[in-house]
Amino acid sequence: MSKFFKTALLASAVMIAVPAFAKSTVMVGGQEMFASKTIVENAVNSADHTTLVAAVKAAGLVDTLSSKGPFTVFAPVNSAFTALPAGTVDTLLKPENKGQLTGVLTYHVVAGAITLEGLKAKLKKGHGTAQLKTVAGGSLTAMMNGPNNIVLKDEAGGVANITIYDVMQSNGVIHSIDKVLLPKS
User: Fold this and answer.
1) What CATH fold (topology level) applies to the domain 26-177?
2) DSSP letter (8 states) at residue 126
């Protein structure tokens, strides 16, 4: 075997042995998310979360989500907001509905930094389900959906898939989800 071939084989084995999550940054919405930045500082750069960022600004939650935390944010992507009934987002963004908007947004936030491994540990302890208390005062039910996907069920019966895990922030962690979670009406 040639020296070049041995070196190439060894290099490929090393690359395979390094897990994908070992990277210091994660790509979300076409941009790198940096662990040294806050939830808000990273979210404003994600093309997939422009509606969420607009809602956070309209609700006056920028300072809160920029504070020390730590927080776990289950962040709906733009298509999750688009899937809501027509006019819902526009109605929530009106100044007179700020309280309702704040309630919906804080329903996506859990105190503490809960990573994928933390979610798995809670699921194991709960024999397949875990209750997560939201900052809004409601609860989300985490469940496995197959061997590698965790879903969240809201109090209204809606289910969201976590599509991107462990986007680490200086003040917590973000997990992208594909649906907007809704508290009990």
Assistant:
1) FAS1 domain (2.30.180)
2) T
* Residue in 108, 101, 119, 114 with CA at minimum distance from that of residue 77: 108
The dihedral over CA atoms of 61, 67, 69, 74, expressed in degrees to the nearest 10, equals 40
Distances (CA, A) of 136 to 26, 99, 183: 28, 11, 9
Distance of CA 174 to the CA centre of its chain: 4
- The first and second tokens of residue 65, run together, are 């989500």
Phi-psi region of 120 (alpha: psi -120 to 50; beta: other; left: phi over 0): alpha
pLDDT at 21 over 50: no
Q: Which residues pair with 110 in a beta bridge?
A: 72, 134
- Quick: pLDDT tens for 154-177: 999 999 999 999 888 889 899 999
Question: In which element (H, E) is residue 123 found?
Answer: helix 116-125
pLDDT at 131: 97
164: enclosing H helix or E strand: strand 159-169
